[in-house]
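Re: the pair you flagged

First of the two:
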Amino acid sequence: MSILRSRNMSVLLVLLFLLCGSTPLLAANETHHGPSELVFVAQLMLLLLVGRLIGEAMLRIGQPAVTGQLIAGLVLGPSVLGLIWPEAQHFIFPADKDQKAMLDAISQFGILVLLLLTGMETDLKLVRESGKASIAASLAGIILPFLCGVALGEFLPDSMLPDPSKRLITSLFLGTALSIASVKIVATIIREMNFMRRTVGQVILASAIIDDTVGWMITAVIFGLALQDHLDALTLAKSIIGTLVFMAASLTIGRRLVFFIIRWVNDNFVSDFAVITAILLIMGIMAMITDLIGVHTVLGAFVAGILIGESPILTRHIEEELRGLITAFFMPVFFGTAGLTANLTILQNMDLLLLTIGLIAIASFGKFGGAFIGGKLAGLTQRESLALGCGMNARGSTEVIVATIGLSMGALSQNLYTMIVTMAVATTMAMPPTLRWALNRLPLRKEEKQRLEREEMEARGFLPNLERLLLAVDESNNAKFASRIAGMVAGNNAMPTTIIHIKTNKSKKAGRTSDEKEKEKALEAAETVKAFAEPPEREKPDENENVKLDVTTIVANSPRQDKIAEEAEKGYDLLIIGLAKTVTHRNEFHEDLTKLASEFAGPLAVVDARQTHRDDPLKSKLSILVPVNGTEPSRRAAETAIALARASKTSLTALHVATRATKDKKRSRKYDEAILKDIVKLADTYQIEIHTAVRNNVEPDEAILKEAARRKHNFIVMGVARRPGDKLFFGDTAAAILEKAESSILFVAT
C-alpha cells in the first residue's frame, strides 16, 4: 500500500509540475493575437494524460474507462480546477473562441469516429438471433424514458431553456438523452463478467444495439428539426422520410459498395494503412450525405460503421488498429472536452441540484422499468428481466454525445447540459455493480453450458479463426473435389473465398484458351464452392441457415506461382490446392503443386481425390478417418474433419497410433485416452457421431491404412507439417500414405 501511495503521489507531483511549468508559458502566449498552437498542444496532452490516469483508476475499481475520461474533463474544467485554481484553469483552457475552436474541431471529428466505432461493434446478427425478447425490451426501454424526458421538458421553467419558443425541441432532446443506453458500457461489463454469450447477456447486448440504432435514427431526425427555424408536419415528414430512404439505400446498395471498396483497396494498394484511410473516407462521405438530406452527420457515421463492421474481409488486425487510434486519442479528447464544458458548481444551487437528482431518478426509473416490463412481456424470468433492467440503465458515452451536439446547436442550455452529463456519469457508475449483482443471481442452463463449451473450444480452434480462403484449382475432377472441400470449409465460418483457376496444357491443346471459356470454368468452381458452403439442417431454429459466401474468381496461366505470391500478400489464412497432377510416378508431389505451395507461407491444404471421389467428385459420399497424435497439426486436421463431417452429415473415426515403448502402460493408456477425449468432446459440441480407435506398437502409416480398410473409409484427413527443402514434403508417414492409400487424402499442413 505504501508503494501504491508513493506512486500516486509521484503522479500528482508530475501533474502539478506540468501545470505550474506550463502556466507562465501560456500566460506569455496571451500577449499574441489569435489561437496558439502551444496552448492547443498543452490542452491535448493534459486531456490525454489525465484521461488515461483516471480511466486506469476507474478500471481498477470496476468502472468503465470512459467514465474516467469524462471525469478528467470535469477535473480540468471549471468544476474542480476552476474552483480551486481559477487562474491556471483559465490559462490552460482560455475562453477565447478561436482557441476553443481548435479543440472543438478535434472533439467534433471525435464524435464521428466514436459513432463509426459504435457501428462497427453493432452485431445485427446477434439482434436477429436474440429474438423478440431484445426487441420488446429495447422498445419498451426507449418509449417509457422518452415520454418521461419529454414530459420533464414540458414542465421546466423558461429560465432553464435556451429558447422558450422552441421548448418542444428541448423536450425531444431530453427524451432522447434519457432513452438511449450506451452499448459500449453494456458490452464492457457483460464481457468482463463472461456473460457475452450467455442468453441473458445476448438479450441485454442486443437490446442495447437496438437502442443505439433506433436512438441514433431518432436523434438524427431531432437534430434535423432543430436546424429548422420552425417545426411543422412537413418538416417532420421530410426528416423521417429522408432518414428511412438513407437507411434503405445504405443497407442494400451501400452495403455492396462498401464491401467492394474495402476489398478493392485491400487487394490493390501496397501502402500502409490504406484500408483505414478508405474506412475514414466512407465514414466522411456518408456523414456528408446525411447532412445534405437534412439529418445530422452522426447517423451517416453510425451506419457507415455498421456496414464496415459487416465487411467480409475486414481483418481483426485492421479493426484493432482503427480501434486503437480512436480509443487512445479521440475518446479521451472528446469526453475530456465534454467534461470541460460542464460546470458542476451550478449544483450549489439547491433548485438545480434537486432538478438534477430528479432527472437521474426519472432516467433510472424510466429505463429500468421499461426494460423490465419489456423482458417480462417477451417471456424472460423475473431474475432475467431484473438483470436486463440493470444492464440497460447505463447512459455513458451516448448521452454525452447527444448533449454535446444539443448544446452546440442551441437546443440545450448550459445548465441542462451539465445536468445531463451528471446523469450520464451517475447512471454509468451505478450500472456495473447493479448488473454484476443481478447476473450473479442467474443460474447456468444446461443448453447454455453446452453452447458456451462449444464456443470456448472454437475460440482456441483453427477453423473458426480463419477469415479468408484462397483456392487454386484447374478443370480436373480433383479440382472439383477440392472445390467441394473448400466450400465445406468456407461455409463453416462464411469465409470470403478467392479462386485462382489455372489454365492447363490440356485445355490449351483442346483449343479452349479463350478468356471467356476459362472464366466459365472459374465460375463453375465458384458455384461448387457456394453450393457446398450451405450448412446442414440445424436442430436449433435460431441458427443462421443461409450462408452468403463472397467468392471471387481469377484466371491464371499454368503454373502461376507468382500469382499465388501476389494474392498471398492480400491476406489469406488458408490455401487449398486441387490440381490434376498431384503425385508423380515416384509418389512425390508434382512440381506444379510444389511451385504453388512454395509461395504461400500460411497454412496449406492439399487435396488428392481417388476412386469414387475422382470419378464422381461432387456426389460421392464421404466416410472420414482422421489420425490424431496430440500435436497441433493433428488437432487442426481433426477440426477440419469435424467441419467436413458436419457439412456432409456423416460420422467419422479418430485413430490414435501409439508407437512409443514404455513400461508404464497405465500412464500410456491415460495419455491415449486424453488425446481422444479432446477430439470426442470437440465432435460432441457439434453433435457429430464419432468413433475412436487406438493402435499400439505399429507403424503409423500401416495403422492408418488398416483402419481405413477395416471401416471402409474413403477419405483420410491428416495433419502434417512442412519439412524444409526444395520439394514439398510432409514427412515419411505422409509420403507412405500418399503412395499406398486407396482412399482420397486431405493433407492439412502448418
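Second of the two:
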Amino acid sequence: MIETLVALLAATVVMVPIARRLGVGSIVGYLVAGLAIGPDGLRLVTGVAQIQNLSELGVIMLLFLIGLEIRPHRLWILRKTILGLGFGQMLPSAIMLAALAHWAGLGWQAASVLGLGLALSSTAIVLPMLSERNLLSAASGRDAFAVLLFQDMAFIPLVAIVPLFASGHVAAHLPTHLPRHVPWFAVGRALIAVIAILAGGIYLVERVFRLIGGTRTPEVFTAMTLLIVLGTAALAHWAGLSASLGAFMAGALLSDSEFRHAIQADIEPFEGLLLGFFFISVGMSVDFSLLVAHPLTILAAVVATLAVKIAVGFVVSFLKRRSALTALRFAVALPEGSEFSFVLFAAAIAAGALTKTQAGLATLTVALTMLVVPLLFAAVERWAIPPLSQRREASAAIAPDQPTPVLICGFGRVGQIIGRILSVRQIPFTALDQNAGHVSFVRRFGARAFFGDPTRITVLRAAGADTAKLLIIALDDPDAALKLAELARRHLPHLTILARARNRRHAQLLMDLGVTLIVRETLLSSLKLGEMALAALNIDEAGAAETIARFAARDEALLTETLNYAGDEPRVIATLQQSVAELQELFEADRKTTT
C-alpha cells in the first residue's frame, strides 16, 4: 500500500503542475497521471481496487463541500435559475444522447442510463476553469453554477433509480403487493439515520464547534470536521443509503453556520487530494484496448456528447435572453462528462443495467471529454470570445449570495464599528473572527460574521478574498496582523489593505510589508483627548486645533523618518526629543509674531 501511495503522490507532483502550466487544468493532470502509472502505462499500480476506497472519500468530501455551498436562502433566491436552467440543460441533453445511443443499437434501458450519465457535467472541472478566468461572478459563471448545483442535487436520486433500468420492465422491480413486501426494517433504519443527521446538524454540531473553537486548538477542530463528514457518510451507508447523501446532508445543515468558512478551509485540502486520487483511478481504469478495438465508436461518442451538450447549452442560455458571448461561454463550459458519471456507471454495472463493456466505453468517453473540454474552452476564450466582446459585460451588482467587496479580519470593537459604518451606506462585507462566542453574538444582529483564522490563506479564499476589493485588518494581535498582511501581499496582491496598528513599532513593521494605509489604534483618540485637555486649560479653540494638527503632521512624518532605524531605541528617543523641541520653537515663534 505504501508503494501505491508513493506512486500516486509522485504522479500528482509531476503531472498536475505541468497540466496547470499548460493551462488545461488540474483534472487533466490527474487523468494523465492515472494513465501514466496505470496498467496500460508504466504499471506502477496495477490494481485499481487498491485506491478505490481511498478515492471514494474524495467524492464524499466533494458532496459535503457542495452541501456547504447550498444555503437555504441562496437556493430560494436562485430557485428559478437553478430549476429552469438545470432542467433545460440536463433533460434535453439526456434525451438526445439516450436517443442516439438507442439508435446506435443499445436497448432503451442501457441507453437511458448512458444518456443520464453523459448529460452530467463536472463541478470539479468547470468551477476551477471559470475561477481561473474570473468568470464565476459573470452571467455565464452564475448560470453554469446554477446548472451544476441542480445536477449535484439530482445525482443522488439518479443513483437511486438506476436499478429500475436493470430489466425491460420497470414494474418488475416493484413489489406485486406493496404492503406485504415493503422492507419495513430497512425503511425504519434509513428514517432513523436521516433524523439523526438532521437533529445532530441542527441542535448539536454547532454547539460542539463553538466549544472546540473556544479552545483554539486547530487539530481538534480539523478532527471534528472530518468526524462529521465521515461519521454522517458512515451512518447513511449503515442505513442502506448513499454515503455521499449523508455527507451532502451534513454540509447543507452547516451551510448557514458561522463556522462554515473554517470548516471549508479544513476540508478542502483533503477533498482536493482525495478527489485527485479519484481522477487518477479513473485514468488508471481507462481500457485502451477498447479504444483500439472501437476507435470510430469512441470518436463518435465523444463528438456526439460534445456537440449535443454545446448545442443544448447555447440554445437554453440564448432563450434566457443572454448575449451570444455569454451563451457561448456557458455552453462550452459544460459539455464534458462528470466525476459522478463514473459513479453512476459503476452503480449501473452493479445493478445489471450496463455491461462492463458498455460501461467501459462510456467511462472512456467521459474521460476523453474531460481531457478535451479544458482545451476547447481555452481555444474559445482565445480566438472566439474577443471578436464577440466589442464591449465588456457590465459588472454584475453584488448580490447577497455573491462574494462581498470588503473583508474585515477581526470583528471586535474596531471591526464592528467599521462594519456598522459600511452597513449605513449599504456596502456588503464579510467578517472573520476567531472568537466563536463573539461571532455567534454579533450574528444575532444580522452581521455577516464567520468563525475562522484569517491568517490562513484557505480561510481567506473561502471567505471570498479572491474577488474582494478591500481587506481591513482589525486584529488586536500584532503578530497575527503582520502575518495576515504578509500573506495578503504575497497571495492576494489585488487587495487594497487598511490596517489597525497597536503602536508605532507595529505600524512601521506593517509599512515594511508594503502596507501604507495604517491607523494606530490609540492615536486618533489620544489626539482628541489632547485637544479637549487644551480646551479645559483655557487654550482657545483655534489654538488647540492648530497644536493638534501640527503635532499629528509631525508625528506622521517621524513615523517614516525613523523607519530605517526603528530598532535603534536610543536613536529613536533622541529623534523624538528633537522633534518636540522643534515644535516648541515653532509655537514660540508663532506666539511672538502674534503678540
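The first strand starts at residue 406 and ends at 409.

-B.
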